[in-house]
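Question: Now follow the chain.
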Amino acid sequence: MEERLPSQRLDKWLWCARFFKSRSLATKVCQAGMVRIDGEPTAKAHYPLRAGEVLTFRQGDQIRVIKVLLLAERRGPAAEAQGLYEDLSPPDPTARLPRRKAPPPGLRDRGAGRPTKKDRRDIAKLKDEL
């Protein structure tokens, strides 16, 4: 007899590995046919995923290529979720660009004069929210 390898639903694994915030969102992505398994497109959220398979899907504006290392027992912390897969995605070219820091709240252009009463209320509101 053939030995059955352990498997897990595709949508559940994507949710447990923290690629999607909710399982229903992972299900919608799978049903829309936006996930490829070993290069073959699938539209089944209930696809039996096994260790060693390679997933390709879009996450935001990035294409993710993921190799499944382990099946998930639960949706745990992020550190535990990162142990479930190996990321084979090419590095994001925009990740290296330094990000500009936002100016502190209430900073005014030099020479703009004194703030009006409304400007002061707006500045106070900004400082209280942070």
Summary: The chain is about 25% helix and 20% strand. Residues 8 and 62 are 25 Å apart (CA to CA). Helices lie at 10-16, 23-31, 78-82, 117-129. The radius of gyration is 23 Å.
